[in-house]
Queue: 2 jobs
Job 1
Amino acid sequence: MSRDVNNKYWDEELETLPREELEKRQLADLKEIVQFAYDHAPYYKRSFDAAGVKPSDIKTLKDIQKFPFIDKKTQRDTQGIGSFLGELAAVPEEDVVFVSTSSGSTGELGGSIEATRKAIEDLWGAEVYDFYGLSDIFGACAAMCEAKDGLHIAENHILVETVDIHTGEVLEPGQVGELVFTTLRKHARPLIRFRTGDIGWIDNTPCSCGRTHGRIHISGRKDDMFIVSAVNVFPSDIEAVIRELSGITGEYLIRVFERDFTCKYSVEIEKNADNPAADEAVAAEVSAALKARIGVKPYSVVVHPDGGLNTRSEHKAKRIIDERKLDYSI
Ligand SMILES: [Zn+2]
């Protein structure tokens, strides 16, 4: 089979499937995989029974919401039980021909933060496209199209939900929460309602590229989040603000600490060498921009000269220091 290299689609029929048809196929696959998981993976049999749900409860896509979550911990706890592949496995070991190993991180984010992606494009004079993959599921689960407005999900393979990070309550498209994936066609080790630990929102509005598969916008990792005055703060949101402002280099360091028994954050930045503004004025501008975007202003903004932060020297510079986690005990 030869492909037309001038066609922007990989599989035009599939990528532009009317949503109604796409969802019909998703539902058929969902029913099949949930039944398969229940029949073949010991973990799912046990957890569905404990939750009082059965595969035949799936009548619409929304019915997946009745089923229990799994997460990274479930994977760890069930690994190696029964067989090498563990209790999430739904096929005998001898039927599996390839086992993928991962570095242990969950979401693998590329230049997911819009401002960072743009900065890379400016620096290299190249187009940068983002993709999102979970090694637990398979390489790429979602990828950016030429419209660069979120990442299209491979919805023929994955059913995606967003849930409240604290309560697990299912959210509407557009609301920011934890991304939850269900694999629709992976039989060796199906993942039913896998909490990814990645924070983002779903966009099902039509995309200018013509693809009908929904998009995800990723804002950060749940593990990196901290709470200031009841507001969920993501370092990635702080980064986006810092990268967008002019007159500063875009380098930054975030400190999270406790003052008067409440969580605070401070931000250190670098002023451009040719920026004539006073440090106080730069700090006030950064503080106001953070307050506007995040909802809580930083405890302080420290302004360094260009190159004053040590964040460029290392390959993977540490940009967040959580002083609450430092252990002072002897
Ligand atoms: Zn698109």
Job 2
Amino acid sequence: MNWLSDITPPGIKKMFRKRDDNSDALWAKCKSCDEMIFTKDLEASQQVCPSCGHHMTLSPTTRLNAIFDGGQWERIELPDVVTDPLKFKDVKRYTDRLKDYRRKTGEKDALVIGFGQIEGVPSVVAVQNFAFMGGSMGMMLGEGILKAAEQAIANNAPLILFTASGGARMQEGILSLMQMPRTTIAVQMVKEAGLPYIVVLTHPTTGGVTASYAMLGDVHIAEPNALIGFAGARVIEQTIREKLPEGFQRAEYLADKGMVDIVVHRHHLRETLAKILRVLTRHGKKAKPNQQGQNVTPLRVEAQKTESAQKALEAPMDKAAE
Ligand SMILES: [Zn+2]
């Protein structure tokens, strides 16, 4: 933060720290090779272990800063939805759980959407936040993906989605499952507009997310060793009563089998995305890399939907709002 917090002894820092906040710890341990890494080094390497290359979870805002030119982007706010329509309660009320995660992450829900340029190509990038209830897909996330798609169309920009999710949000029951067809329509809208839709699968991408928008990309990129699958390996093993092959449901295995197009190291992600975008859009020769993030194309707010998509989208939401 500042020089004062840098020299404050850890004991005093701890006194003012909430129990679940470990953001200012000085060292972090790599889960893969057990190496102790200086937090600042980890930040500088985008949370990639310098000794073994293990990719750790990256916060959505850090991700967007790293992807967009000059770290400059405009936030697209998530639309408001009905909170806790089922009045769900397990050991804790769903509304309390939401409040907790909102405080912890500073975000409204498990999705952050940004608009900016990637090597000069204006793009909408949506990033799922695994730290927010396991990146689970609820109504707000579904609406968010829809909004991201609309913004992509309104701005004639490609849509890039970073997935990380445990699947549907069980606290919203059937309403969360309804986000699967809704997000599928959102993807369809982008495709009908002739715009590229690129998915970057990060660790872990599972459940209903894999079964909907995560597997519908024009191009599927994955981060090294990311877990990508629908049901868990243990469940599959118990069901089919067979030993699963090594590396099952991992990015490299899926790239080998054709489910993933390319596995890209986090440090090369931006340039790879830019290359793909240049090929898939007409910005290639005209656009110049935007060094300082200046002259960022302003975000247009008005979105158009095709008639069929409009109809399909209105039907389920009317029910959800009741
Ligand atoms: Zn490591």
